[in-house]
Write a structure and sequence with these properties.
2 copies of one chain form a homodimer. Chain A has about 170 residues and is α+β, with helices and mostly antiparallel strands. Helices cover about 15% and strands about 35% of the residues of chain A. In chain A, strand 1 and strand 2 form a beta hairpin. The interface between A and B is large, with 79 and 79 residues.
């Protein structure tokens, strides 16, 4: 296996539910991007708000000159659906297999189908369920522009629900 | 001009900084997607946490059967770089021009280059600056899976900064 790499990704989101697919934009020069393209797989590891220093470091440092996993105290666990490991300290992880790539200026956008997910039992709404409790997950959020890390705030409303009150108020 | 449409988008993020490009995944059946593809432009309008009901309604209702702008009390303002209007009640808006499209399962991913941005003076860090204060923006955040709307939480650390303490700790 190639020596694993890790980076901090902010240009990343789900793009399709069927099949569940993530897109991630990375600068073409990133070392970890070469590893991802060589193996055809990657994992997405959601850090908690207490991991800001480790995440920021992984975005700043180069795996070519230092051992980022050792310094940031990140433990690798073997993937179960792909050959790519995921990070134990992150309570939510997705294993992805590349389905498509696109060049956008000096960035490469990699599309990855989510083929496996891992969640610590501690972040689930109920032990036998598959829903993640956002307060328990306590994800680290990156705000571009101002370049701040933030925590997630309080719940405002239920989605696919609060807007029903307005349905049918005005017809065409 | 075509009658404008509006929807709630969650599968959306920046994918490239050079040129600044947003990608957005939409179910192929969405009416507003047809409008976007017909005009070749769209605007991204960031709602505040107080707009949860309006946003949720825009995601649930169809512009074919009701006037979503009237019901949700959304005011359209003319774009300055494109022919697509943006929403005045959202304090941050981006005008985008489609550069590429990709089909991912039953979703269409639209890439749009950001050709203009609008920010209310009230959300800026300083009146003459171009940085958005995240507390003043107070964006509505959608959490998939659990289907909750949330607010943004407190600042944890400065990005491109807090991780410097770990640089060079371990060499290769």
């Amino acid at each position: 296996m190639e020596s694993p790499g890790v980076l901090a990704a902010s240009w990343i989101n789900i793009m399709s539910s069927t099949p569940p697919t993530i897109a991630m934009g990375l600068r073409e020069s990133r070392n970890t991007l070469s590893l991802i393209r060589a193996t055809g797989t990657f994992t997405v590891n959601v850090p908690t708000s207490s991991m800001a220093e480790a995440v920021d470091y992984c975005g700043l440092a180069s795996g070519k000159v230092e051992d980022k996993f050792e310094t940031a105290r990140l433990t690798l666990r073997a993937g179960t659906a792909t050959e790519t490991p995921f990070i134990e300290e992150c309570p939510f992880n997705l294993e992805c297999r590349i389905t498509e790539q696109a060049t956008v200026g000096s960035y490469i956008v990699v599309f990855g189908e989510i083929v496996q997910s891992h969640a610590d039992e501690s972040i689930l709404v109920s032990p036998d369920g598959d829903l993640v409790d956002m307060d328990k997950l306590d994800p680290l959020i990156y705000c571009a522009g101002i370049r701040e890390y933030r925590r997630l705030g309080p719940k405002v409303a239920d989605a696919f629900s609060v807007g029903r009150a307005l349905m049918g108020v005005s017809g065409r």
